[in-house]
Amino acid sequence: MRHSSVKRHELPVIWLDDIRTWDASCLDQGVYAPLTRFMGQEDYEAVLESMRLTSGALWPLPIVLPVAGDVYTKIEPGMTVRLQGIGGFSAHMTVEDKFRRNLAREAEQVYGTLDRSHPGVDRLFKEPDGVLSGSLKDVRVPDTGYPEPHWPHEVRQILKERGFRSVAFFQTRNPLHRAHEALQKTALEMVDALVLHPLVGPTKADDVPAPLRMKTYRQVLDTYFPRDRVILAVFPPAMRYAGPKEALFHAITRKNYGATHFVVGRDAAGVGNFYLPDQALNLVESHAREIGITPLTFHSFGYCPVCESIASARSCPHHDQWWSLSGTELRRRLRLGIEVPPQILRPGVARILQSAYRGEDDDSEEEEASS
Fold first, then answer.
1. Is 102 a catalytic residue?
2. Which domain holds residue 242?
């Protein structure tokens, strides 16, 4: 991971890595409201201790700007610096605070573990401990190349124009499989509209890349959903894999986009076996009234060969016979061109993914959408 570094310029220039480029953009665009700047030490400590900013506002994750050691030494409070990052990002920041973090303490408080096999913990321990805090101005957000709306004001405007009063948001970092589709359509029965809101910021190296996932989302929505009631938008932040606290973060930020309801899955925002299946749901539900959002929770869905349909654990007694594929097995099949059962993954989605994994061009998105 490339960390921030200083170059000579009219103002000191700090180059941001991908994660902080998106964090800075989200601070500027209202994604992280009520947070509007990289945290100073008081807010940082308060969030670790109580999941609240010093203002008292609920906020579960530290949002800080780590900088390399030479940068930390040279930059002092009161100085103005220029930030630059991917996609043409730039901004000015007046430095208000600088401090050093205890990375082990942050790992324990945010992730609940020091285990380096946790991707969030491993990423954290690769970062510098010194951070800068300050307010942003003259922000130019990155160009992602996605035509879908990115920012809260854009999504809220669409919801207002279409007259939707109840809107469920669905967070994902994976291609949509048939069980996801069933869950989303169940949610759509309960609200006016659904916003499919995939996270497109940095994820684990073995996750399906965002540009490829976006292609599959468009294909599924255009073919199998009522497009007048479903909106595809992008969620720019990085994935932290912080389990319950990140699920709460996702609920708070989706409220900023106009969500009235938020779908919370089992082990939401988790990874491996680090969190209990209902831990994220319980934390979101305990703060739902304060956030002003209604969590939508569903029993797991899957394909049952006995019922010969996508079924819910609430209505199907054959849960132990459901078909399933691990992420590792799915990627192996895609890479080797082995068929993925259509009961698990739509054929059009499978073709898009297989072509990409095998380095081929693919136009099945357009073919199936028009069939």
1. no
2. 152-370
Choosing from 54, 174, 294, 297, the catalytic residue is 174
The answer to whether 81 and 13 are in contact (CB under 8 A) is yes
For residues 29-42, one letter each, b for 16 or more C-beta atoms within 10 angstroms of the residue's C-beta and e for the rest, the string is bbbbeebebbbbee
Residue 146, in any domain of the structure: no
Q: In the annotation, is 174 catalytic?
A: yes
Contact (Cβ atoms closer than 8 angstroms) between residue 370 and residue 219: no
Whether 60 and 166 share a structural domain = no
Residue 224, judged by CB atoms within 10 A of its CB (0-12, 13-18, 19+), counts as middle
Q: Is residue 30 domain-resident?
A: yes
Q: Is 273 a known active-site residue?
A: no
CA distance linking residue 263 with residue 197, whole number of Å: 11
pLDDT, tens digit (0-9, with 9 covering 90-100), for 152-193:
999 999 999 999 999 999 999 888 889 889 999 999 999 999
pLDDT tens across 212-264, in order? 999 999 999 999 999 999 999 999 999 999 999 999 999 999 999 999 999 98
Apex 205 CA angle, 204 and 210, nearest 5:
75
Distance CA 278, CA 267 (A): 6
Residue 152: alpha-carbon gap to chain centroid: 14
Residue 122 lies in a domain: yes
**Domain co-membership, 20 together with 88:** yes
pLDDT value at position 210?
94
Q: Which of the four pLDDT bands, split at 50, 70 and 90, describes residue 366? A: very low
Q: Which of 20, 173, 218, 240 is catalytic?
A: 173
Angle at 275 between CA 35 and CA 198, to 5 degrees: 50
Which of 54, 94, 172, 297 is flagged as catalytic? 172
